[in-house]
Amino acid sequence: MKETIIQFGEGGFLRSFVDVFIHKMNEQGLYDGKAVVVQPISKGLIPVINEQKGVYHQFLRGIENGEVMDECIEVKSISRGVDPYADYRAYLDLAKNPDMRIIISNTTEAGIEYLGTESLNDAPPKSFPAKLTALLYERYKAGLPGFIIFSCELIDNNGKELEDCVLKYASLWKLPDEFLQWLKNENHFLNTLVDRICTGYPKDEVESLTKRLGVEDKLMNTAEIFHLWVIEGDFEDEFPLKKAGINVIWTDNVKPYKKRKVRILNGGHTSMVLAARLYGLSTVKECLDDEIVFSFLKKTMFEEIIPTLGNREEDIQFGKDVLERFANPFVKHQLLSIALNSVSKFKARVLPTILEYYENNKVLPKCMTFSLAALIAFYRTDESNDNEDIMAFMKDASVADILKKEAYWGQDLSFMKDAVEHYLDVMEKEGMKKAYEEVLA
Q: What burial class does residue 80 get, using C-beta atoms within 10 Å of its C-beta: 0-12 exposed, 13-18 middle, 19+ buried?
């Protein structure tokens, strides 16, 4: 089978999402292509992917139409993995394959960034957009057509933001005007929304699931049954997702779908997890089973997030559905997994709601302000997992210095200082239970 897709990101989410979709299209004879997975950072799973020849087992479990679903798919849509840090030439050579047509990325919210310090001669450049620019330039020099580029990072206008970063690198590196025209005319940077809760490698179920499979699988992956992919554009003829039965929406405007999902589902997650971890919980399911944390989540969603969206019935129903998805008995979503890169996640998922709530009501939303205090408290522990510079700064900086760090938040948040300091003081001096009780009072 041909290699037709370059995929940036080898983590659990893309393997539970698009790689499953490609597998299903191939199985139905609707598509004829596999993905080459590129490791976007210096450490990753590429050696294991190549050891297993790209094959792994995906468990999809949950409640669908009132029935318990427990499906396992042996996914065979990945041909191989490439580590640009170990073999940069192999990475650039992907651009020279005329069968390649699609690029898919999920490099977390922090992945789409313009550093402006890299060189085309770096092998590889540090940021994902710089790596992509180098790859696209190789494609252009080879005289081949451009790509359909699906950006799956959870930021607004993800495709457009990625395109803007690529254009900035092309300008920084003084690449030819003809290349800039090729970039704009031959490539399609698509804004997308992705929705599936991926719980990743099932550490606490490895023994039972391995016994069920009958083989060892270092890449076994778990996720919920529910999935949704909203894509701004329409390339169904080339990438027949809908025809394969995938819950995909090709649209001319992804924004309403994205705003609802990011604010309610992802915003609910991010608002809840750090305080819950400080409270001693480990999984989302434990949060739903804990009366205090569940009350906090409901208050956050239905009294702070959804009102800023207009309190429409469809948004309220979406919130109720999200609570059911969080309570999925099969989902053991680790809080520390969700906590990865929490600063950029908070900026993208939670802060817009805080700002809108404040503008509408002239007071700060209690729960989400509490969440920002919990973020600061969490980064003072040894469990935070983020950019090393961010972790070093957050661990020792004052609340005042953190809130006015515009590089993190996109603006000065000093107006939140008194409220955040108050909640942080209660957390650190009286404990998380007392802090929860105060915000819920």
A: middle
